[in-house]
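Schema walk-through. Below, the input block comes first and the output block second. Nothing else is stored per chain. Lengths vary across the set, and this one has 133 residues.
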Amino acid sequence: MRKIIAAALLCSGFASLAPAQAMAQAAYTWSGPTLLSSGNTMNGCRLRTPMATHSGSLGLSNIFLTVRNDGTAPVRITANVELSGNNSRKSGSISSGVLPAGGQASIQAFTPGGSTRDNTVLRVTFTSCAPAG
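--- output ---
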């Protein structure tokens, strides 16, 4: 019995040695002035980006961007996404399947990396918006 307890204590001690970047953090949300977007009305589209979220470890879990189609027709979109702040910058691209009129989707972007999400800004630049006909 003592060996089992000792092994359990030893294993719990190793968990505390995990790198800080891999440790899970509380959920984080970008919205308002920390979530900027442009190109929302190209080709007659009416796109909105009300928020982006991230939860989990900084190096393993992805940022998810909520995109809403306020237009009257279904569309497909592409966009460039950039996370900047804390003396670092990371970027990638996203694309959607069919985004229905009046509908919204949560689209996976990339892992934030770095050591914190505090004081960061997420910029979304829509590069295409086409009818999904």
